[in-house]
Design goal:
single chain; 128 residues; four-stranded antiparallel β-sheet; disordered N terminus
């Protein structure tokens, strides 16, 4: 194999890897991890929430004992939301979402985060 062909092949492989890592549809947490523990209630503060990157979910607790789960993929550009305070925040472009409903409250996102049902077993948060 010529050096030119070797470098061209390596470059194409690197491009495919980069594109697949940054783009495309994120896996559906309900299909990928249904019935599995996605986090611990002790990690989700009342009035806020936590991002669980392994399950690609953000879990909030708007009121004591009321746990809500949403996709962690921002509906604007697909970035993973990074923080939860009084709102779920995506630092990529500044979108914010309501911790109770997942509705977009500040753009550029206009669509809500996809909601998921969870149950609590002791301190385990389990995706239904």
């Amino acid at each position: 194999m010529s050096r030119r062909r070797l470098l061209g092949t390596a470059g194409a492989a690197a491009t495919v890897t980069a594109v697949s890592a940054c783009g495309g549809e994120p896996p559906d947490p309900q299909e990928v991890r249904r019935g599995q523990v996605v986090g611990q209630t002790t990690d989700v503060p009342v009035g806020g929430g936590a991002v669980f990157s392994d399950s690609k979910l953000v879990v909030t607790q708007p009121q004591e004992g009321d746990f809500r789960a949403f996709s962690a993929a921002c509906t604007h550009g697909g970035c993973t939301v990074q923080e939860v305070t009084e709102v779920i925040g995506c630092l990529c472009h500044g979108s914010e979402f309501d911790v109770t409903t997942g509705e977009a409250v500040k753009g550029p996102a206009t669509e809500p985060l996809e909601g998921f049902t969870v149950t609590i077993d002791g301190t385990d948060i389990i995706l239904d």
